[in-house]
């Protein structure tokens, strides 16, 4: 079979990315990316495909405190690149209804997300924690930024 000239630019299966590579030795990336609360469907960065920027797509599965007992992203952090985050509900009759409740922080301001949304986080802005309070219908989440790898600078707080 002839190899495609540009096929490498289409990623249709989960590959190890920079976040996986940063896990402590002995931790299986699947154990943190495919759980009862979520599935990291696909990701892309310079580790997956040389020259690409950070992008990840995640499904959040229905549940409440029994499925989301811990904070999804507990650390307030910033990046050395702009970031766009998206949270989308899956109710086909009302796609703007998030179908859940997510707490998200920008600097020292708390937001309760209940509608599908895009969030722009400027370079250097501290954001999170990200707390999933409940998910009634699956939520599609993605993050993207022009950094070649996902990196965090944690706050001193």
Helices and strands, in N-to-C order? HHEEEEEEEEEE
Largest sheet: 5 strands, antiparallel
Write the CATH architecture name: Sandwich
| Average of the residue pLDDT scores | 90
Strand content: 35-45%
CATH fold-level label: Jelly Rolls
Number of DSSP strand runs: 10
The helix tally amounts to: 2
CATH 4th-level superfamily:
Jelly Rolls
Adjacency order of strands in the biggest sheet? 1-2-9-4-7
| C-alpha Rg (nearest Å) | 16 Å
Please give the share of residues in helix.
under 10%
Morphology call? globular
Query: What is the CATH class name?
Result: Mainly Beta
Q: Would you tell me the structural class of the helices and strands?
A: mainly beta
Distance, first to last CA: 56 Å
* Total individual domains: 1
Unreliable residue stretches: none
Descriptive account of the structure:
Helix content is 6%, strand content 40%. The chain contains two helices and ten strands, in the order ααββββββββββ. The strands form three sheets. A five-stranded antiparallel β-sheet has the order 1-2-9-4-7, with no helix packed on it. Strands 6-5-8 form a three-stranded antiparallel β-sheet, with no helix packed on it. The longest helix is centred in the first third of the chain and has 5 residues, at 29-33. The N and C termini lie far apart (56 Å).
